[in-house]
Amino acid sequence: MRFPFTGVIPVDKPPGITSRKVVDIVARAAGMKSVGHAGTLDPLASGVVVVCLGHATKLVDHLHAQSKAYAATFLLGRSSPSDDFETPIETEADPRVPTAEELEAAAGDFRGNILQRPCDYSAIHVDGKRAYRLARKGKPVEMKARPVRIERLEITDYEWPRLAVEIECSAGTFIRAIGRDLALSLGTHAVMESLRRTRVGPYTIDSVAPLSSIESATLPGLLRPPLSALPHLAHITLAGDLLDFAVRGGLLAPDTVAGERAAAVDGDGVLVGILGRLANGSLRLRPNFRGLG
């Protein structure tokens, strides 16, 4: 199938709307249905949501797997079932007030590879249902800790009860949970007051499109090529008979690329697809943009 548009548009989502709403606005401007986003951002949060159009929707998993960056504020001495302002806040009567030095020392335990228990109010599936749906009904939610990586956790400001942090982390990290667990390690509680996603993979907040700017007339100028979404992959150029062979579904020799996968481009530098290694070591285009029409 051929689409009028194929590529990605990094959008600055304002607070108060869902990531799905962002996709709907882009889809309406593009006049097409094959539109999706690479990573949900909570309705209360703002910042980078990467919208993929046309064949670029095949890159969602590759984008979602890349690291992300956030700026967040927390209110200490408070708790809520959702770890943010979505649910009622309970304020501690006599909270422990940690010092800036204690916070910095404790933050060290949350850098690098850690195990994190996701928030009860999350989109993770538990027994086939979204955790937040169970939590809203008052049903018990058992969330198992999962490995995540915190590349950077920097305390940028602290004046009780407000704590501001900047975080760079792997996919699947819950920022609310970092504030929750950091506070608990110091004998108090925390709720997330604000969250702004400042980067998804290569797309930073200073280079994204305001949601209000997306219209049919402006969309072509905002579209970025699919290849821009893959800075983490090696690039290999396929040309001539080798390109034709790969596009027809042919298997390439194991030594064509060094790693498990690579972004394959044609002689003009346009993304053809992603070469992925099969069990026998050979390589095949998956996805194959040329093979999709």
Commentary on this structure:
The chain has 293 residues and is of the alpha+beta class. It folds into three domains: 7-66 and 202-229, Pseudouridine synthase (2-Layer Sandwich), CATH 3.30.2350.10; 68-192, Pseudouridine synthase, CATH 3.30.2350.10; 235-288, Archaeosine Trna-guanine Transglycosylase, Chain: A, domain 4 (Roll), CATH 2.30.130.10. It is built from seven helices and 18 strands. Strands 1, 2, 3, 4, 7, 10, 11, 12, 13 and 14 form a ten-stranded mixed beta sheet that branches. Strands 15-16-17-18 form a four-stranded mixed beta sheet, with no helix packed on it. The chain has a two-stranded antiparallel sheet with strand order 5-6. The longest helix has 12 residues, at 19-30. The radius of gyration is 22 Å and the shape is elongated. The termini are close together.
Question: What is shown here, in short?
Answer:
By secondary structure, the protein is an alpha+beta fold. The protein contains seven helices and 18 strands.
